[in-house]
User: What shape does this take?
Amino acid sequence: MRKAPPDIQPVQDDRDDASLFRAAIGADRGKVRALPEAAPPPAAPKPKPAAKMARRDEEAAREEFRHMLVSALEAGDAMSYRREEITPRVLKKLARGEYAAQEELDLHGLPAHAAEALLREFLRDCRAHGLGCVRIVHGKGRNSEERLPVLKNLVDRVLRQRADVLAFHSPPTAQGGTGAVLVLLEKR
Assistant: This one.
């Protein structure tokens, strides 16, 4: 037979639960400790900034190097250039004025920055309209302050840099001579 468990009587304490709790953990009613603030979640790592200055410097250096490769043209010098895939025969025909200019741009007398912007826009429009040969009048540059033809050298530099320019050459005197250039453009 089993014995009945002894009667367990709870201990009577006149204190309420809150005071018992404070007594057990030692909390003082006047001093309430604030929980430490939770640290904000770590921010996502920021992407490394692009090296814009280094890129600009490199582009400027390349541009300057391109200028050094082509020596400056004098007022009476003929302009001449052809891409490797263009035969010398085509360049000779261009020099003799055997290609008819489909459009013409007259830059002479303009400031260099305006002339360059106009030239780039003109070439873009000519290409968009499928023109094959154009004439650009840059002038001979005899009145230039730098004693070198500014616009002639600017046109030479811009044309050499463009992928859509196949060849160019100063035309015969009757078509502008060394004050103009005939340009063969790649068809669209």
Notes: The radius of gyration is 42 Å. The mean pLDDT is 83. DSSP finds five helices and five strands in the chain.
